[in-house]
Amino acid sequence: MRTAFLFISVLFLSVTCQSEVIQVGKNQRIATIRQALAQCHPGDTILVLRGIYKEGNLVVTKPVTLIGKDHPVLDGQLKYEILSIGGSHITLDGFTLQNSRFSSSNDYAAISITNGSDIIIKNNKINNAHFGIHVNNSSQCRIENNDIAGKAISEQESGNGIHLWKCQGVSIINNHITGHRDGIYFEFVSHSEIRNNLSEKNIRYGLHFMFSSYDLYYNNTFSNNGTGVAVMYSNHVTMYYNTFKKNWGSASYAILLKEISDSKICYNKFLSNTIALFLEGTSRMLIQRNLFRENGWAVRIQASCSDNSVLNNNFMSNTFDVSTNGSLVLNTFLNNFWDKYEGYDINKDGIGDVPYHPVSMYSMIVEENPNSLILLKSFLVSLLDKAEKAIPSLTPENLYDAKPMMKANPL
Question: Element (H or E) spanning 42, and its range?
Answer without folding.
Answer: none
